[in-house]
Design a protein that fits this description.
The structure is a homodimer. Chain A is mostly helical. Chain A folds into 2 domains: about 10-70, Orthogonal Bundle (Arc Repressor Mutant, subunit A), CATH 1.10.10.10; about 75-210, GntR ligand-binding domain-like (Four Helix Bundle (Hemerythrin (Met), subunit A), Up-down Bundle), CATH 1.20.120.530. In chain A, about 70% of the residues lie in helices and about 5% in strands. Chain A contains 10 helices and 3 strands, in the order αβααββααααααα. In chain A, a hairpin with a 3-residue loop joins β2 and β3. Chain A is globular and about 55 Å long. At the A-B interface, α3, α4 and α7 of A face α3, α4 and α7 of B. Chain A binds a DNA duplex through α3.
Chain lengths: ~240, ~240
DNA sequence: TCTTCAATAATCGTATACAATACGACATCT
DNA sequence: AGATGTCGTATTGTATACGATTATTGAAGA
């Protein structure tokens, strides 16, 4: 039971449940999120659902329109670019911060993680994606800077959502070799190189998996983002 | 009347009112924030106050302890350092992003702003501080990156709170000349130099106005942060 | 006088209630 | 048929209600 009757924890459970559901695409971009049905499903009142939706809206995973409720966010391409730019910047900071400061234990943990990524590379799709993401979160954690961690987490989740919309189907997001190189640079204490590697790593994630490469098939695909960002509701 | 009976706007009004009150130190760090009295004062129910407090808690301006309510945040020195570090990083990104991209109109606006800062420098204390802060917000706005703007705003407000606690009384936070140099570098399109200037500018804000230079007078000052961060309630 | 404890008051966490708004279906008119 | 107006339903925005938890006060005992 993660439920726990402790105060405030149920609210957080709702938040996390919705968050995961969105990132894993159980709730697809643009999908409506009525407070009633969610509350009923999760066994809480609208109050807590509302709280969670509000928080998700701040983080950009949910869109909240006055008097017409919440829906899973459907970022435009410009917003997507913004998010990726900021994320690259943030993770560059992470890299600079970490260069030379990595303890032996931390380096070992990262390498173990990369080995896992390698193992999962060929087979399980979603598992591979999850591991790639976690690598970056782990790095942010290791800075010991809570605010930096929060921002990286937020940007990362939004990136997941963006890739769900604009990314090609099964691009394995991160190249394992690039993670390896990065660890090496961090270990060597070469901050500039680490930042540079991180920057290009994330840049290549974009070009490899994302933005523009996807040739939209027909007008419906092209219009979908606009319709949804205006609150319209295509079938 | 900023009140406006439009839905959702009252909630935002509450949020903004509390935010300003905290930043302007009408509500001092550590001060309790009971939902009831705030709601009564602002003419709304606890629901909306709660919403606002939740949001402020996420942004780090308010601390929220389970079953014992909200209080104005009292960041520790480590948290303060984290926030300043992230802010410096973010604003470096702003500088890099803006270098060479500044339109003539934007440059003019910035220069006009700096002239205002200069005017206000000698006289009004709080006014000078406000203008210094706004300069940085303006820069972030000019990137056109909404997420970057949000993060800079958030970090800035937290910095205000931090300076309220640990800063020396009337340090004029930003040197006008440094702002001028920055604009020049942006205009020249020298991204590296702009980033460097920004970095040192913010670094000097810290050393000039802040952290450690303040010789605490007695034990009470030294203990205050610890007491408050533990939820204790000194008179 | 200082501690301990119980009763009371204050405040929070969550659910529910009610009014306001938006969406959809049907009827009406041209 | 197509457009337009009206009613009913669904869903939101906000307030209120109620049980639970924490702070406070005051009295009794050491």
């Amino acid at each position: 039971m993660t439920d726990s009757r402790q105060p405030g924890l149920r609210a957080q459970s709702v938040y996390r449940a919705l968050r995961r559901a969105i990132i894993e695409q159980a709730l697809k971009p643009g999908m409506k999120l009525p407070e009633d049905s969610i509350g009923e499903q999760l066994g809480v009142s609208r109050t807590l659902v509302r709280e969670a939706l509000g928080r998700l809206a701040i983080e950009g995973l949910v869109e909240l329109k006055p008097n017409r409720g919440a829906s899973v966010a459907y970022p435009t391409l410009e917003e997507a670019r913004d998010v990726f730019d900021v994320r690259r910047g943030l993770e560059r900071l992470v890299a600079e911060n970490l260069a030379g400061r990595l303890t032996a234990a931390q380096a070992a943990e990262l390498e173990a993680h990369v080995r896992q990524e390698e193992k999962a590379h060929g087979q399980d799709g979603p598992e591979s994606i999850r591991l790639s993401g976690e690598f970056h979160i782990k790095l942010a954690e290791m800075t010991g800077n809570a605010l930096l961690l929060r921002y990286v987490q937020e940007a990362s989740s939004r990136c997941s959502l963006i890739l769900a919309i604009y990314g090609r189907p099964h691009s394995s997001e991160c190249a394992v070799s690039e993670h390896r190189q990065l660890i090496e640079a961090l270990r060597a204490g070469d901050g500039a190189r680490a930042a540079h590697l991180m920057d290009h790593h994330l840049q290549s994630v974009v070009t490899r998996a994302l933005l523009t490469p996807r040739a939209e098939r027909d007008i419906r695909d092209l219009l979908a983002p606009y319709a949804l960002s205006e609150g319209l509701n295509p079938p």
